[in-house]
């Protein structure tokens, strides 16, 4: 999860504080009386969970043949509809294999999740990062945007959407705050990394404090927060069938502000986003600066979600056009230059260097000698994955779980690529899943490379934390990717591995070791997104129709001819 190592000072002048006893103008949230009556979406099953293509969004409906994974979903046709906003899922408490009644781990997980709820003015607005009883809570007592996502999905699947709605509106309100680090003002669209509620029992007031990166390790703003916010808004809309929230002028403006930050023109020659180290889940120095796969995949998914949510008014139409252009360029770039399989690995091995022309094959001037030895044995014959990072004379060959799973769910990966990613996971099960799912990245860096890349970070030693640690929260992403690619048995296998220890160990934040055998040396117990990730994985496996709120089908208009240059 987030490093959660930067404490927030109440005296920090760079953080704006809103007190519940302040003026009405200052405290006024979005006027709920302006909310139109919820309007249900006309959701129809079309084999799988099909979203509008770019052509549909702009010009009208464009039918296309079913995807490969739809064969799996044909078994789900007994459901009346994808989501029913009027009743809770029948699979909220999966049955125990040992008899009737709820699975004991599920009941325990729900109880723990509900104890993490944070309230502001009587309304639940999120979940804290961990039920941490230690003296050094650091910032684990805050509501983190990225950490809340699996909690939000669990509540949506359980037909409890109000907390998700409150969270979306509250973080939207925080977005409008003035954001300064020292004397520098951040972009208007930046979403907070986290927020907390301070209670004053003497004055009987509640105060919100937000962190936009000014209190984080390295003082880096969270690029992923805005993307997760858009993705979660679409999940809420898809799950409830209620479009009134996303159609609020405040929500429309919030999306446009986020998009303005990442669609702005500059010196970039690539459609990918240039990022600093520590701007996402891996929020410490880990050599992911440049164009990390996690941010690019989230960027792609957020763009596609925004395309479905933006109104086609004067302001919205302009952004739709910009999104369409960026999606075409981004999908081509990622599917060509970030993709690695056995054939492409062999091509890189034989690269020529110092090519100077628009027909160059080695466009980034990558030196073949920079290929790590481990990747030749790691790459299976039929597998593949998106590289960790690609930039000038740089390819990070590490496998990153979140980026590759989001690539599948957003359909950044073509069906063929998605199949190869899953085949790699299955072929390298021992390395990537081991005794506790799932490696955040593989392999770990160590020795001299670790000293140079991490700056001798004692928390990111080899096979620990972000450096090859095993994170139970990733179970929900793996499960979703497995279901989408028609491999539910693989998800079930991973869940069974987690169930052997996760509850007994106290729901740790992460595990250490090559196989994930040891509870992380600095891992917090009762980590909220470890709990919520398990619940989401379990509910999706029992009721795969839940996948629709977090998955987008392939857009045929984005399907490229996979060629790296005219010289191929």
UniProtKB/TrEMBL annotation:
* Entry keyword Mitochondrion: no
The catalytic activity of this protein is classed by the Enzyme Commission as 3.2.1.26
The keyword ATP-binding appears for this protein: no
**EC category name:** hydrolase
Q: Which reaction does it catalyse?
A: Hydrolysis of terminal non-reducing beta-D-fructofuranoside residues in beta-D-fructofuranosides
A GO MF annotation of the entry reads: endo-alpha-N-acetylgalactosaminidase activity
Name its GO BP terms in alphabetical order. sucrose catabolic process
- Keywords recorded for this protein, A-Z: Carbohydrate metabolism, Glycosidase, Hydrolase
> Pfam families from the xrefs?
Glyco_hydro_100
Which Gene3D superfamilies does the entry link to?
A: 1.50.10.10
What does the similarity note say?
A: Belongs to the glycosyl hydrolase 100 family.
Its biological function? Invertase that cleaves sucrose into glucose and fructose.
Q: What is this protein called?
A: Alkaline/neutral invertase
Q: Which organism is it from?
A: Solanum commersonii
